[in-house]
Amino acid sequence: MPGAHDEPVGPSTAAAETPNQPSVAPASAEARRDERRFRLYTMAVLTVGLAAAGAVSAWLPFEGSVHLWWIGPLLAIAFLGAEQLGVNVDVRSGISWTISFTEIPLVIGFFVAPFEVVLAAHVVAGVTTLVARKVTGRVLYNAGAFLLEVTSAFAVAGLVRQALGNPEQMPWIAALAGTLAAPLASTLLAMAAVRVLRRRMRAGTVLRLAGRILVVGFVNASVGLTGYLVISKTPGAWPIVLAVSVGLAALYWAYSDLLREQRDMEALSDVSLMVARSGRLAASRPASRADEIGLEIDVGDWSTIAERIKDQLAAARVVLRLRLEADEPMSTVVAGEELPATSVPGDDALLRLPGAHVRHFRITEANTEVRAALLDRGAQEALVVPLRSANQLLGVVEAHDRLSRWRGFGKYDVQLLGTMASHLATALDNRRLLAALRHDAYHDPLTGLLNRPGFRQVAGEPLREHAQSVMLRVDLDVFSTVSDALGYAWGDRMVIAAGRRMRDALGADVPLARLEGASFAALLVGYGPGEAHDFAQLLREQLSMPYPVDRLSVEANAMVGYAASTVEDNGQPVDVDALLQRADVAVRATRGGEEVKAYVPSMGQIFLRRFQLVTQFRQALEDGQVSVHYQPKVSLPGKHVLGVEALVRWQHPEFGRVDPDEFVPAVEAAGLVGALTSFVLDKALDRVRRWMDEGLRISVAVNLSVRNLADAEFPGKVADALTRFGVPAELLTFELTESGVMADPQRALPILRELHGLGIELAVDDFGTGYSSLAYLRQLPVDQVKIDKSFVLGMGTDLSDLAVVRSIVELGHSLGLTVVAEGVEEDVARDQLEAMGCDVAQGYLISRPLSEERLEAWLQARTARSFDRQAEAVLTLLS
Fold first, then answer.
1. Does the keyword Glycosyltransferase apply (predicted)?
2. CB 371 within 8 A of CB 363
3. Is residue 783 within a helix (H) or strand (E), and if so which, with residue range?
4. How far apart are CA 532 and CA 512, in angstroms?
5. Which end of the chain is more exposed for a tag (fewer CB within 10 A), N or C?
6. How far, in Å, are 477, 530, 552 from residue 555 at the CA level?
7. HSE-up of 820 (CA within 13 Å, CB side)?
8. Is the peptide bond before 167 cis (omega within 30 degrees of 0)?
9. How far apart are CA 440 and CA 641, in angstroms?
């Protein structure tokens, strides 16, 4: 074809259904209608071409200067050779043009051969190549195009010749005009094909393409015409013409490479952006099971990607095979010609690809196995490349049968597909990573259930759409006990087992989340309060059944709180967070054997009070509402005052005296415990400093929170406070609970060692209530252990408590620690502790927590009593 070849690729189809292979893009009725329209268009082109050829043959008798029998075959060879040097231009609308040197033999043909010979040479050369390449689906259309191109060229040349008044011979200007008519004819045919296939192509693109084709055609025709005229007038000048032709060919090849590189870069960018864009569309929702690996099939997205690759390679068909699951067969997306119904590639030769390189298969060079695989696909050749990431097969890309009439896939196509596959694999891998991050953002890593953000999104829509919904909040109270006794790995096993029980009981469609620890939430849609209570009771019974953990059977207890969405505030329906909060209030209200509790509006006062306490705490510190009381500690048996424990108190102007057990956890949860600890520490060190000024050496103990042990800057703050008040470090004791240390021992131990290195004494409070104490006690840099008051209070009536206290005293002394007993309220308990060898006593028997003023009075009275006893003893000795 002179100048430009128009090659409609036919209607784009998706995948054909196969028995053993899932198809994600079945051929549509619209695609079949496009195919029928194109066939009618082909018959019209062929009919018009034959009629035009007959008319021109009758109108233009040949009057050339050469009458040799071999000119026809020579022209056919020239057309074939010119096509081999063609430059392919692929248009996204599905049409590909091949800019070639065919204008050169065509323009020479005007002078050396009749119309019929040139027409036959061009048609025979083109059709022969198509048949040899087995591209039989477009032979009739291309034959009609060949006829119209050469016919239009000779018709225009004849008209120009008559207009110039020289009907006897062919003027060079007539030959040039006729040669330029051929690419214009092919362009018009291609535009008509675009309309038949109902694809869009902007007018600007058409004009730019037509302009470039005319420029290239003019250059080729000029070179051919000049060469013929020079050689015909000066036969010895053929080397110069040959040199000019070689230079022009080199220029075209350079232009071809630049054009190819530009198109390839655009294609690579397009494919990567398509994959990335399709991944971002799902980024705002919690990942489902299907797209956890980032390959959720969207027919539109992947069909567009396959079409882009097909157009860039000028292939008859591109097949994307993507593996969704490791054990599942590949899903298929097809662009271009339909796959034959017999195509069932499972583990055939084309898919057994080592490494990540492109393999080029030709049916003429293939072994029996490869030939069978190609025939199953209805292809004569194929480029196949795997998509791999870290030795994991993500999929396979296949390109079948290049559309060029003159040649198959070349080295540039192999390089392009290899680079494109690499980019596609990287884009898919990045999409997998984004999907994994998205999944992790919305799911609990331990149980695989939704986390709080994921639950908020998933439960939000059904809560808005259904008038009756119930939020369940479930807590397992045995989790912390199991974690402390057996370690957190065992506690995690219980959480996983509880999550499975809940999922089995609720079903797969009910939104279920693990919020934190052993706390779960679920949304029941369409449940009324009565049904919700019955279901919550049943769920609690299932969750409270013993849990087999390894070879143990762990008893458990579950508490369930629920809140109905029909409860409204100011006429507005509650959202997920508000409903969760109400269910949380309900589960906290389960006490005294009532394990299932429904939310009632009066419960909201609990959260309101807690919120007020947290928000007003800083102001309370500044206003003097918060104060520090001190409870004395005395030695056994001497009963000397060794120190005091600093205890915080809050006198609220509205609520009155607020119990520390109420506001301290709230302040700690709100992240304000640092301010509370600093306040108590400053007050306590100031009190010690004033005692030192009075000649008294009394130590003070301050309680630490879990959050203090997680603050790497806390030891430095303590050191600054000691320096600021001028208090020796040995007069400061920090008390910490077992649970506080055991919450994160790897993080707490460095902080404790740094504090101990300053000379501060460390005491383990409430010792004996945990299960991991013996394992970690020797690792902790502690100086004291404080026996929990529950054991001390029970010593007089419970022999087991007495035995526990005695064991703790002996254990502490064996480790060189000072043993402090809390909760000493009776003389009997004090005497028992003294007999056991306990070092220090603290409790109501000695004194209740006292304000600074009352503590001063208590110390003065105790000093006076001590002086009176000493004086009485001296007088007794003197008498």
1. no
2. yes
3. none
4. 15
5. C
6. 10, 28, 10
7. 25
8. no
9. 56
Q: Are 213 and 187 in contact (CB under 8 A)?
A: yes
Residue 569 phi, psi dihedral angles, 5° rounding: -115, 120
Handedness of CA 827, 833, 836, 839 (dihedral sign): negative
In DSSP terms, which residues pair with 95 in a beta bridge? 8
pLDDT of residue 461: 82
When the pLDDT of each residue in the chain is averaged and rounded to a whole number, the result is 77
At 613, give phi and psi (nearest 5°).
-65, -45
Q: How confident is the model at residue 14 (pLDDT cuts 50, 70, 90)?
A: very low
Q: DSSP letter string over 153-177?
A: HHHHHHHHHHHTT-TTS--HHHHHH
pLDDT at 413: 81
Give the predicted TM-score (pTM) of the model.
0.45
* All residues at 6 or more sequence positions from 462 whose CB lies less than 8 Å from its CB, including other chains: 469, 511, 523, 525
CA pair distance 363, 379, nearest whole angstrom: 8
Could you give the dihedral angle defined by the CA atoms of residues 727, 731, 732 and 738, in that order, rounded to the nearest 10 degrees? Answer: 170
SS3 call for 443: strand
Q: Is the pLDDT of residue 850 over 90?
A: yes
Instruction: Write phi, then psi, for 471 (nearest 5 degrees).
Output: -95, 125
Residue 157 vs residues 108, 153, 625, 689: alpha-carbon distances, Å = 13, 6, 107, 116
- Partners of 393 in beta bridges: 388
pLDDT, position 93: 41
Helix pair 411-442, 452-465: axis angle to 10 deg: 80
- Domains of the chain and CATH, by start: 7-14+23-233 (1.10.1760.20), 268-442 (3.30.450.40), 452-599 (3.30.70.270), 623-862 (3.20.20.450)
Residue range 106-134: mean pLDDT, rounded = 77
Please report, as a single letter, which amino acid is at residue 38.
Answer: F
317 neighbors 12 (Cβ within 8 angstroms) = no
Q: In this predicted model, what pLDDT tens digit does every residue of 700-746 receive, in sequence order? A: 999 998 888 888 899 999 999 999 999 999 999 999 887 677 666 77
Residue 182 and residue 217 in contact, taking contact as beta carbons nearer than 8 Å: yes
Q: What is the DSSP letter of 575?
A: -
Which residues touch 604 (CB under 8 Å, ≥6 apart)? 582, 585
Contact (CB, 8 A) for 548 and 493: no
Cα 847 to chain centroid, rounded? 61
- What's the first-to-final CA gap in the chain, in angstroms? 142
Least confident of 169-173, 205-209, 712-716: 205-209
